[in-house]
Amino acid sequence: MTAAAATGPEPPAGGPLFADASPAQVRAALIPEDVAEFDRQWRAVMATATETLDLTSVHHVLESWRRIAWLTQANGPDGYRRMLARAERTLRTGELPPDSVPLDQIKALIAERPADGDSTPTRSSS
């Protein structure tokens, strides 16, 4: 068996980053602070799957961590840590960060976009 065969196929070209990432690839993309939690969850879900012969939970845990790996890589380790700190501060204080955009404003902007994908907002004349 070659090393390439042992590691499995490469993700499809042009596909979403981490969509088909292996557990080892996901783990390698995480910040050190997340690795211990990934390991704990992975071992627990694998132990359960061994007993139940059901991989559903394994797939759910892996998909969840794939999203975290994507966020980590998309923002960079420091950007990901800043995102976590902002979220923690918002949850703790209940206050949105100063540069936040209210949800109703986001919804209004989305509603203004044409359905055909044209990015030019349309405004009704009143």
Molecular structure report:
By secondary structure, this protein is an all-alpha fold. The chain has one domain (16-112). The chain is 64% helix and 0% strand. The chain is built from 5 helices and no strands. It has helices spanning 3-7, 23-29, 32-52, 56-93, 103-112. Helix 2 (23-29) packs parallel to helix 4 (56-93). Residues 1-12 have low confidence and may be disordered.
* Net shape: extended
Helices and strands: which structural class? mainly alpha
How many helical stretches?
5
Poorly predicted runs of 5 or more residues = 1-12
Secondary structure topology:
Blueprint: H1 3-7, H2 23-29, H3 32-52, H4 56-93, H5 103-112
Helix pairs in contact: 2-4, 3-4
In a few lines, what is going on in this structure?
The protein is mostly helical. It has five helices and no strands.
Q: Which descriptors would you attach to this protein?
A:
single chain; 126 residues; mainly alpha; 5 helices
